[in-house]
Amino acid sequence: MSDKVRIGQEEWEVLDHKAVPGFRPAFYIIFSIAAVYFLYIFVTHFMGHSGGH
User: Fold this and answer.
1) Which among 18, 24, 26, 32 has the fewest CB atoms less than 10 Å away?
2) Residue 19 has what pLDDT?
3) Helix/strand/coil (H, E, C) string of 23-39?
């Protein structure tokens, strides 16, 4: 899971990971829902307070 890499006289440990199947579509779905929700809050806030103040 990790490799050792020598740079100059120092030895560094390189950490890596394997991609988790299904993570990217789940991220896109959750991000899309959050974006629509924030857009809804933004629009309703300014539409509700546009007059009289």
Assistant:
1) 18
2) 76
3) HHHHHHHHHHHHHHHHH
